[in-house]
């Protein structure tokens, strides 16, 4: 009798453990998904859907250049370029909703057109009449969406390693794919360490010897799971609906495309598709990957300055 009772208890314990683990996973997923964070920092603009962090450098009366980061990044990604750009431009950096020091609501507002509209509203609040807009990766889609809505505001665009269409994407890697699993993803997000973040982010950089700065790791740590997944899905949806070259052709704006030849996230060969946009200039940079703004700041700044100077002069004459 005692042995039978002991066996039953062991069986109950064996059954209870996985049930408890599954229960904890589900509770964790619910908690992580509902995380909601307000904006931080002094330079914030109160906009519908959440406060947005804005950083300005350079003379306020100089031609405006707007820099838009990609997914899981922030305005800090542009730090190496700003000193070179701010000598002759009013440089405006914006943390998109869900990123950096901006608000990270648990609800909606992460769609690419909404992100673009919000950037336009921020520029209106800053009394910017004309601007050259530069976007990195997903930021290129946001810049395009902004231009679709505000052709009066955007005089020209520069895209840095922005995939032209969804099937040009290479891979998120195993960890990236698991991140979107509704149960496993939130757990991985909660357990992420600096080392794991660096490993997952390594495909964003291809220059030999490049070390990912701590600030970039902190940018990922500062996001909520919902903001990350919602932004990623929104970026995919935008490209599924229509490719960037098709959208840009319809807009008729001057275009510069910069693409690292060794990009591990988007096939660099796809950059030639932007040449279908009338007047587009496409520059492939050898020896760097998905993030030329960090891997080769001087070369990236040189290309941007050559482009923005001409277009800013044009904008001033039209304004």
Overview of the molecule:
The protein has 319 residues and is an alpha/beta fold. It has a single domain, classed as Alpha/Beta hydrolase fold, catalytic domain (Rossmann fold), CATH 3.40.50.1820. The protein is built from 12 helices and 8 strands. An 8-stranded mixed β-sheet has the order 1-2-4-3-5-6-7-8, with helices on both faces. Strand 5, helix 4 and strand 6 form a beta-alpha-beta unit. The radius of gyration is 22 Å and the shape is globular.
What order do the SSEs take from the amino end to the carboxyl end, as H and E?
HEEEHEHEHEHHHHHHEEHH
Architecture, according to CATH? 3-Layer(aba) Sandwich
Give the C-level CATH assignment: Alpha Beta
Quick one: overall form? globular
Task: Report the total helices.
Answer: 12
Low-pLDDT sequence parts:
1-5, 7-41
Structural class estimated from helices and strands:
alpha/beta
Helix content: 40-55%
Number of domains: 1
Largest sheet: 8 strands, mixed
Write the CATH homologous superfamily: Alpha/Beta hydrolase fold, catalytic domain
Mean pLDDT: 87
Number of E-type strands: 8
CATH fold name: Rossmann fold
Radius of gyration: 22 Å
What amount of the residues lies in strands?
5-15%
Strand order of the largest sheet: 1-2-4-3-5-6-7-8
């Amino acid at each position: 009798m005692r042995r039978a009772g002991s066996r039953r208890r062991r069986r109950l314990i064996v059954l209870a453990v996985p049930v408890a683990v599954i229960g904890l996973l589900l509770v964790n997923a619910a908690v992580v998904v509902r995380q909601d964070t307000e904006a931080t920092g002094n330079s914030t603009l109160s906009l519908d859907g959440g406060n947005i962090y804005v950083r300005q450098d350079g003379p306020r009366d100089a031609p405006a250049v707007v820099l838009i980061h990609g997914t899981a990044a922030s305005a800090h990604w542009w730090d190496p370029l700003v000193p070179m750009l701010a000598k002759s431009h009013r440089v405006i950096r914006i943390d998109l909703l869900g990123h950096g020091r901006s608000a990270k609501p648990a609800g909606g507002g992460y769609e690419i057109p909404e992100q673009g509209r919000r950037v336009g509203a921020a520029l209106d609040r800053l009394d910017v009449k004309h601007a050259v807009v530069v976007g990195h990766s997903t930021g290129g889609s946001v810049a395009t969406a902004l231009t679709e809505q505000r052709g009066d505001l955007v005089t020209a665009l520069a895209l840095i390693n922005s995939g032209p269409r969804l099937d040009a994407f290479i891979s998120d890697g195993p960890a990236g794919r698991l991140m979107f699993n509704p149960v496993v993803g939130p757990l991985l997000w909660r357990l992420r360490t600096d080392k794991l973040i660096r490993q997952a982010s390594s495909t964003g950089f291809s220059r030999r010897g490049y070390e990912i700065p701590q600030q970039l790791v902190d940018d990922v740590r500062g996001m909520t799971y919902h903001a990350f997944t919602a932004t990623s899905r929104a970026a995919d949806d935008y490209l599924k609906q229509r490719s960037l070259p098709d959208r840009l052709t319809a807009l008729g704006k001057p275009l510069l495309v910069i693409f690292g030849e060794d990009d591990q996230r988007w096939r660099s060969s796809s950059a030639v598709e932007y040449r279908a946009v009338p007047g587009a200039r496409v520059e492939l940079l050898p020896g760097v990957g998905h993030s030329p703004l960090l891997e080769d700041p001087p070369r990236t700044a040189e290309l941007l300055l050559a482009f923005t100077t001409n277009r800013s002069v044009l904008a001033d004459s039209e304004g």
